[in-house]
Amino acid sequence: MIYLDNNATTALHPDVLDEMMPYLTESYGNASSIQHKSGRIASTAVVKARQQIANSLHANEKEIFFNSGATEAINTVIKGVFSLYSGKGKHIITSATEHKAVLTCCEYLQKKGAEITFVPTDSNGMIDITVLKDLIRPDTILVALMAANNESGVIHPIDEIASITKEKNTLFFCDATQYVGKVPLNLEKSMIDILCFSAHKFHGPKGVGALYIRRKSKPTQIETLIHGGKQEHGFRGGTYNVPAIVGMGKALELAVSDFTHQQKISGLRNLLESTILKEVPDTEVIASAVSRIANTSNITFKHTKATEIMSRLNDIALSAGSACVSGDRDPSHVLKAMHRSDEEAFCSLRFSLSRFTTEEEIKETVTKLRTVVGQIREQSPVWQLYKDGLLD
């Protein structure tokens, strides 16, 4: 299997597995049971992981809160802020290209009286900072915008957004799930108020993530989503998933220790794109003119359904959109928000690489892709109509 679906999830780094193993076997104590040695060992491991994550992001360890991943964090923040800040207002700003977790939370809150405004994006998926600034009102309680898009790879100017929200006295929540571990991030210098990420996007384990909440003289108020014990200072109840937390700390430490591997990934992504454009006619790289994370490429194969391509490339892992909506028959909401037609959306494939992707895999992928797309098009009446000039 050639695995090019790393925006869905990544392989566990071998060093991360080694770090986790003791806490899956002999050191299996509950991190909250500090009355005995086994529990204290687990508690110390959680403390170390929190320090690793804080150091990796240039944050304070008291600003890091563990959870099950970005979806939980998104629900916690958006619903929690709405609950406690509704006295100021009920206006939330987001974008139609956000992850489904953000959009469905906003849909839920609309039924509770929230007013949701979607800042428009251009054909490259970029938001207009000036428009965003004008949309923020005195009753705006939250701006929820991602750092990097999971389908297109497009990077938003998060530091500029943070500066605007600070000036407007509005909270900025950044879903950095596809950004953390791929792009250097200094939360000490940035004005981002709240940020979330998941370990399995940077070669850590699944089922664990973290929420960063900036410490300020006037603390940010977020209502607890999961009530239970006093874990995370009472903010998030539940037994600590010690092996996963340990794995996340190690994975992020490895990811940020040397960003030169991102240059290698970028080179492979550029090779993939240039070769496909050269060898497969009537293809287009989406958002190629703007800044993207190094590993992501979304390519449209004109009048050739992505699902059909994938069904014939059963030894190559690709995606026709976000993993969370892979079973959805509707066109990608991200590409639609980028002013793409339904036809273009259905004919687009996402390639997402990792530090373990090789040049040989890229070359083999392009070779097989060229053959499969050619076969599909030869058998397609729609393609023949297009070649005869009867379709756009």
Q: Could you say which structural class the secondary elements and strand pairing correspond to? A: alpha/beta
Cα-to-Cα separation, first versus last residue: 35 Å
- The total count of helices amounts to 13
Low-pLDDT regions: none
Query: Count the strands?
Result: 12
Shape: globular
Q: Roughly how much helix do the residues carry, as a percent range? A: 25-40%
> What is the element string, with H for helices and E for strands?
EHHEHEHEHEHEEEHHEEHEHHEHH
Strand order of the largest sheet: 2-8-7-6-5-3-4
Largest sheet report: 7 strands, mixed
Average pLDDT score:
96
Strand content: 5-15%
Rg, Cα atoms, Å? 22 Å
Protein described:
This protein has 392 residues and is an alpha/beta fold. It is 40% helix and 13% strand. The protein is built from 13 helices and twelve strands. Strands 2-8-7-6-5-3-4 form a seven-stranded mixed sheet, with helices on both faces. Strands 9-10-12 form a three-stranded antiparallel sheet. Strands 1-11 form a two-stranded parallel sheet. Strand 5, helix 6 and strand 6 form a beta-alpha-beta unit. The protein is globular, with a radius of gyration of 22 Å.
Question: What is the strand and helix layout of this fold?
Answer:
Blueprint: E1 2-3, H1 14-24, H2 37-57, E2 64-67, H3 70-85, E3 91-94, H4 100-110, E4 115-118, H5 129-135, E5 140-144, H6 158-167, E6 171-175, E7 194-198, E8 209-213, H7 242-257, H8 260-279, E9 283-285, E10 296-301, H9 306-312, E11 316-317, H10 333-337, H11 342-346, E12 348-352, H12 359-378, H13 381-387
Parallel strand pairs: 1-11, 3-4, 3-5, 5-6, 6-7
Antiparallel strand pairs: 2-8, 7-8, 9-10, 10-12
